[in-house]
Amino acid sequence: MKISLNEFTILFLLKLHGRAGRYVLSSLSGISEGIVRRILEELKSKEMIESGKGGSKITEKGIEVLENIFKELHLANFTRIDEFCKLLNCDGMCMTYVIRDLKLDEKNVILIRDEAIRSGAHAVLITRLNSDYKIKILGTDYFLENFNEELKEQVIEKLKPRVDDYVFIICGNTYSTILRALIRMMYYLKRRFEYILI
Fold it and tell me: Which terminus of the chain has fewer CB atoms gathered within 10 Å of its CB, N or C?
């Protein structure tokens, strides 16, 4: 079953934040409240969410769909680390994603990053955890710890990447913008999706 980017965004937010109402989902996602209402109705008709007093929450079926999408995106873990905004000199928020079991031609890092920027991201870092537990900033000769050792430690502690995992750091105004950027980056790498409509 394929779902739209907006449906994915709302499911993602419900998984991340638990029960939430239209206003909160609209504020977090950057999607208008009217469109959020329609998305919630669609997700409810697909039995991916339940709605009631206090808002909507994701169902087991919704979690299963999200897990399939995460698998398709090679997404092993994620968290919000806004301290990257200062390092990358951008406003908004920063999400950090561990991408596992993916072959990435490191010569294409700039092209992949440009996909995210065209999708509305403010800033993007594509990194990789080396065997010596240093986080290499791809496309450069630098490591994350050259700029901020505390951020490197946060990534290791919160996300628990494995050696050779990629860590994508994406900054933007809303979750919707950041998720769109992640999906465009992964689409550039894979060229097809089974669960997400592009």
Answer: N
